[in-house]
């Protein structure tokens, strides 16, 4: 599968809403959560007003179509991200359209973002993932370590 990874353009930021929905772990594929889930404050903070100095986004593109995105933000306001550990650490979000999952694209997106964060001088990055999400294994294989738990989620950190 031929794809390229590049920074998201300003004109494409609206797509983060779609990717925020795609990033929601669906426990039951036959009974999907409604799209309105992305309007909840704890989800909205991952895409609303994206483009601030500490916001970073890379996309995977096939034939001029964006098929996946990985983005980071420092979420330190009143509403924290699910994997927030402090006000200096960017929090990860990653999402691929279903038909492009399990093909190694997500891993490549993650690695590209980790490199970008290193180049920008960040010390570490974090994420939250549902304990029963298949992506836990991918995150561990890349080098993320479980540093905490919340109800059904692991909090994971990668030392840059």
Written description of the protein model:
The chain is an alpha+beta fold and 160 residues long. The protein has a single domain (4-159), classed as Gcn5-related N-acetyltransferase (GNAT) (Aminopeptidase, 3-Layer(aba) Sandwich), CATH 3.40.630.30. Helix content is 22%, strand content 29%. It contains four helices and seven strands; from the N terminus they run E-H-H-E-E-E-H-E-H-E-E. Strands 1-2-3-4 form a four-stranded antiparallel β-sheet, with helices on both faces. It has a three-stranded antiparallel β-sheet with strand order 5-7-6, with helices on one face. It starts with a strand and ends with a strand.
Characterize the main sheet. Answer: 4 strands, antiparallel
Taking pLDDT < 50 over at least 5 consecutive residues as the criterion, the unreliable ranges are none
Q: Overall pLDDT, averaged?
A: 89
CATH architecture, by name, is 3-Layer(aba) Sandwich
Stated plainly, the CATH topology is called: Aminopeptidase
Name the helicity range: 10-25%
Oligomer: single chain
Walk across the major sheet and give the strand order: 1-2-3-4
């Amino acid at each position: 599968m031929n794809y390229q990874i590049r920074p998201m353009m300003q004109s494409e930021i609206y797509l983060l809403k779609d990717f925020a929905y795609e990033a929601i772990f669906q426990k039951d594929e036959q009974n999907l959560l409604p799209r309105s889930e992305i309007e909840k404050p704890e989800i909205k903070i991952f895409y609303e007003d994206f483009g601030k100095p500490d916001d970073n986004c890379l996309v995977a593109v096939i034939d001029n179509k964006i098929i996946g995105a990985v983005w980071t933000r420092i979420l330190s306001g009143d509403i924290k991200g699910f994997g927030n550990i402090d006000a200096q650490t960017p929090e990860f979000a990653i999402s691929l359209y279903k038909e492009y999952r399990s093909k190694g694209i997500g891993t490549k997106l993650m690695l590209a973002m980790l490199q970008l964060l290193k180049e920008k001088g960040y010390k570490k990055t974090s994420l939250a993932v549902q304990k029963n999400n298949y992506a836990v294994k991918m995150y561990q294989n890349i080098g993320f370590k479980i540093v905490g738990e919340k109800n059904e989620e692991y909090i994971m950190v990668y030392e840059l």
